[in-house]
Specification:
The structure is a homodimer.
Chain A lengths: L8 H6 L3 H10 L2 H10 L2 H9 L3 H9 L3 H10 L2 H10 L2 H10 L2 H10 L2 H11 L6 H4 L6 E2 L5 H11 L8 E5 L5 E6 H6 L6 H4 L7 E2 L4 H11 L3 E5 L5 E6 H19 L14 H28 L1 H6 L7 H24 L8 H31 L2 H31 L9 H25 L1
Parallel strand pairs in A: 1-2, 4-5
Antiparallel strand pairs in A: 2-3, 5-6
Chain lengths: 447, 447
């Protein structure tokens, strides 16, 4: 791999080697330079930022952390700020405005052109996590009656500031989306061909209010590099580009990882999150699960006389609880993930149930048998060994069936299946497995 | 959203309405049509497939499941098969050849042109999960001495069959990669400009042997739509397109989900995987964790006299084990995911440790306090309540510190941090929490 290494910027800045700095700035990718900039002190930062080529400054600015952006804005003059705001892609400008405190936002909008201010305000109105919230209004639009030559002229005229020029959108006089035409098609057509004849009608598009998760799914399904966003009357209002879709995909995955580990999801970077916020995101679920576990404790209290008489029963509890939890979370993870990537559907529920039943019987029998041998060798008590082995086998079967059915049930009830992951499955399986264990033990030993 | 609905294809096929079928086939996206095709019976399938426009057939074929592909190939004549193979993008052809049994591969390669056969064989040699294994050799290459006009002529000539034409690669006489030029740049340049003057040198590229995970990271970091792949001498050998990078990203995420739930990762679809294979992927980890839990059981046996004398101690075991496990897996998930998306690094270990220590003290104290109140109200035994509350608080602190440090340790030792997720953390935390609990109880009650 060859991401270029930049020399020590800080020392170049201190030595006021402006030409070398400019050289580096020109030859380094925006995101790499943004990372370098984050590491610098406040004074060095503004010197570097001011020595950037003007068209690169906005790009680099969009890759900075909100803290650094805010800090930098305080040091910029109004005309400099205006230049940055106008240079940002609109979706980046909106992301940035969303993160800033009110007084900064006021200053930013004051320095934006009226047109930009209007567009930013409009984009800010879309609900979080909606297609509208991640789209940009910068795209190339064409008309059906244009020729290929007209289209190229238009792309050359407006293309410089657009996020993508490779997919152009064909709209009618009232901006209703009629078709798309790619630059590839334009290049392979005759100069005099009419756009209306070469465009692809029946465009795949999303509504402004659609969930961004759906957006990522469509990108993956149809291998797109841009996706148009329309309002309820099918007016074209914006586009989403593949880099944003990829970001959504990663954020949605992170959200699933967090939910599946019983946390409220958060897209705030770990290192900058305060400890009260981190604690808040974790404690609610821990509390709910803890209270549920009180109930499991109640089962043990119920059988107190049994294990008082046979204390050897106790030693198997951690093994039963852990194995049940692990077996259940394997199944729930497979099903949750399978549904998330569109491989499994609700209608597959019986195939899933039947498959998990057979797998769990197989796995449960093997683990149960190993337990019988181990316990028998260890304690010489075959009855105890058989009780533990049988309980484990039943536990594994229960765990896998609960683990695979709960996410499907959640989906059916329109909850997020990711909620039904390891932590909840484990808690439920624990109660089942201990009940089974002591019930069997009670029957055998009590008899 | 507007993915077009296709009418009932099966009945159209049975009614031999060839024109309607052709209409639908022309107006439906390849992947949607592939899904329809999967649902059809064998006879209908081949009828539909033969009525497809020739250039669409290969595209649709590449979206079919391996089973359907194999089944379809058996029904195709040699010339039909040759047409499909030549029509596939090379990376799709390789994916497909990799899934087929030997006799089918033989027939496929026999019907491919010599050039295609050579390229497929070459691509097959790259290691699984390497950049080489996901690249395609179909790209547009330009020379520095060409003009913009020459470049457009070349794109028009070779572009039709290339996966992307929007990024063109500039190579010298021995195919060493010298720069890239986008179609956007070409469009915004003068017709007589030299490619060497307008290209971007210092291209970001990967080596054939680099891990595909790295490929996905680079795509995300630099918002690319294509990435060149070079050999050790920097000869350009292929490109990877953003749709493949997105697929890699999803597969890598799925792998992490599976590993974090203590399963061997598998990219075989759940519904087509056999139960022995599913069981095999799960049992090894269950076994290892089960044997580890025997050890935890040993701790309980060690304290048998203690809980025989005070059986009320037992009731808190599930709550301690579950809460410890949940608290630990919250932390390990945050750290594993943070490292996976490049937000956390090994060098952050002390900030992480310090943050988790404070969060765990906060969360542990609150949960511990609630437990004291609950136990006290329930049993009226303040000593027991305090023992449980203190043990829980210590358990949560242990759990979060173990949970955050184990993935970092794994990373340091060059193991996959995802291995150090909930299942292992839970097992280790269980042993710690029960030891702490009975040790405290022993000290207090024994005194």
């Amino acid at each position: 791999m060859s991401i270029p290494n930049t020399p020590d910027l800080a020392s170049l800045i201190d030595a006021k080697k402006h030409r070398e700095i400019k050289d580096i700035a020109t030859n380094t990718k925006a995101i790499d330079l943004a990372e370098e900039l984050e590491e610098l002190g406040q004074e060095q930062r503004i010197i570097l930022f001011r020595s950037l080529p003007k068209d690169a400054a906005a790009d680099i600015f969009s890759h900075l952390s909100p803290d650094t952006q805010e800090n930098l804005i305080e040091l910029l003059t109004d005309p400099e700020l205006a230049y940055i705001v106008e240079g940002l892609f609109l979706d980046d400008a909106v992301d940035f405005v969303e993160e800033m405190p009110a007084n900064v936002v006021k200053r930013v909008l004051k320095n934006a052109s009226e047109e930009t201010r209007k567009q930013i305000n409009q984009l800010l109105q879309y609900q979080e996590d909606s297609a509208g919230s991640i789209m940009t209004t910068e795209y190339v639009d064409l008309k059906e009656e244009m020729t290929v030559d007209d289209a190229f002229a238009r792309i050359r005229k407006v293309g410089m500031d657009k996020e993508t020029i490779y997919t152009c959108y064909v709209t009618d006089s009232v901006r209703v989306l009629g078709g798309v035409v790619t630059v590839k098609t334009l290049l392979l057509s005759q100069k005099t061909d009419k756009i209306g004849d070469i465009m692809t009608p029946g465009v795949i598009c999303v509504n402004t209010g659609d969930d961004r998760e759906k957006v990522a799914e469509i990108f993956q399904r149809y291998d797109l590099i841009a996706l148009p966003v329309v309002d309820t009357e099918r007016h074209l209002v914006g586009i989403i580009t593949v880099d944003d879709a990829m970001e959504v995909l990663e954020e949605e995955n992170t959200e699933d990882f967090h939910i599946m580990a019983a946390m409220e999801p958060s897209d705030e970077p770990y290192l900058s999150a305060g400890i009260f916020k981190l604690a808040k995101h974790r404690i609610m679920w821990l509390l709910v699960l803890m209270v549920s576990a009180f109930f499991t404790g109640g089962i043990l209290t119920h059988y107190e006389s049994l294990f008082s008489a046979f204390p050897a029963l106790i030693a198997a509890i951690p093994m039963l609880m852990d194995t049940g939890g692990n077996a259940g979370s394997q199944s729930s993870t497979l099903i949750i993930r399978g549904m998330a990537i569109g491989e499994l559907r609700l209608s597959d529920w019986f195939s899933i149930f039947w498959k998990e039943l057979r797998v769990s019987l197989l796995v449960g029998s093997i683990l149960g048998f190993i337990n019988v041998v181990y316990k028998w060798c260890l304690s010489g008590d075959l009855t105890l060994a058989l009780i533990v082995g049988a309980s484990l086998c039943i536990t594994v079967v229960f765990a896998k069936l609960i683990g695979c059915m709960l996410p499907l049930l959640a989906k059916r009830l329109r909850f997020d299946p990711a909620l039904m992951a390891a932590p909840i499955v484990t808690t439920i399986v624990d109660a089942c497995s201990l009940s089974v264990y002591f019930w069997i033990a009670g029957k055998v030993v009590g008899a």
